[in-house]
């Protein structure tokens, strides 16, 4: 034993000695490596359709070169050719394309839907104001109960303090809600301008950009069943773009 902290475990030391002494044959652990992530842009985004585990990516060498696959490491043995999976995903991304020069039409349609459903954002503001009114009335009721003797001074003070804290938080939040409502139109213009270029960017840009696009359009992981990509949630702007296109 030496005086310094070992850099390998004791068991590994004995295992190496056995190999050197001819008592044990050295077996190199081999596994298929991802030769090029460029061929597997969806690696880390796909779930297995059978067991829902994350699919791995690998390459197999054949007579014509390397062939790439997305596959499950579990016993279900799910395996898809990367070229097929990637091709169907590119087709899916193409659905989010906004026709050049028509961004304002998409923006107006979504803006009209927003104003219809949320009363131009007033519903969010009204919900906060209603909650503030409710808390104010709660303080008044607690004060009346204290005067009637149903509450002692300590209980009333606790209720009053809690309500005032909630009111202060809501009042601080209200300006942000109002400002966000005013910015809806500008945000939609920027969003649809980017959506109009998402397909070209995905097809032409580097792998880092591709993966950023995937994570932006699909906040949750994808599940590929052999025919199409499915997910529980899509970016709201992307989802509305598809609805408008259809």
Describe this protein's structure.
The protein has 246 residues and is mainly alpha-helical. 55% of the residues lie in helices and 10% in strands. Helix 3 (103-118) crosses helix 6 (184-195). It starts with 9 loop residues before the first helix and ends with a helix. The relative contact order is 0.12. Mean pLDDT is 79; it is low at 29-35.
Radius of gyration: 30 Å
Q: Which strand order do you get reading across the main beta sheet?
A: 1-5-6
For the record, give the distance between the C-alpha atoms at the N and C termini, rounded to a whole number. 74 Å
Q: What is the mean predicted local confidence, pLDDT?
A: 79
Structural class: mainly alpha
Low-confidence runs: 29-35
> Which outline best applies?
flat
Count of individual helical segments? 9
Helical coverage, percent range: 55-70%
Question: Beta-strand level of the residues, as a percent range?
Answer: 5-15%
Q: What is the string of helix and strand elements?
A: HEEEEHHHHHHHEEH
Q: Tell me about the biggest sheet?
A: 3 strands, mixed
How many extended strands? 6
């Amino acid at each position: 034993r030496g005086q310094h902290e070992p850099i390998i475990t004791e068991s590994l030391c004995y295992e190496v000695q056995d190999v050197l002494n001819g008592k044990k044959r050295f077996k190199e652990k081999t596994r298929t490596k991802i030769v090029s992530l460029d061929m597997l842009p969806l690696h880390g985004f796909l779930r297995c359709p059978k067991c829902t585990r994350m699919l791995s990516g690998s390459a197999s060498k054949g007579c014509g070169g390397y062939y790439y696959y997305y596959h499950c490491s579990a016993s279900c043995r799910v395996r898809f050719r990367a070229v097929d999976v990637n091709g169907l995903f590119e087709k899916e991304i193409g659905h989010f394309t906004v026709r050049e020069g028509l961004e304002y039409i998409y923006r107006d349609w979504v803006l009209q839907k927003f104003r219809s459903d949320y009363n131009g954002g007033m519903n969010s503001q009204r919900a906060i104001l209603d909650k503030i009114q409710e808390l104010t009335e709660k303080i008044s009721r607690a004060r009346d109960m204290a005067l009637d003797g149903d509450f002692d001074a300590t209980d009333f003070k606790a209720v009053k303090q809690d309500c005032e804290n909630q009111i202060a938080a809501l009042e601080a939040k209200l300006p942000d809600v109002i400002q966000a409502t005013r910015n809806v139109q500008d945000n939609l213009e920027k969003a649809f301008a980017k959506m109009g270029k998402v397909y070209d960017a995905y097809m032409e840009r580097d792998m880092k950009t591709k993966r950023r696009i995937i994570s932006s359009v699909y906040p949750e992981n994808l599940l590929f069943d052999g025919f199409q990509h499915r997910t529980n949630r899509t970016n709201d702007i992307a989802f509305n773009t598809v609805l408008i296109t259809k």
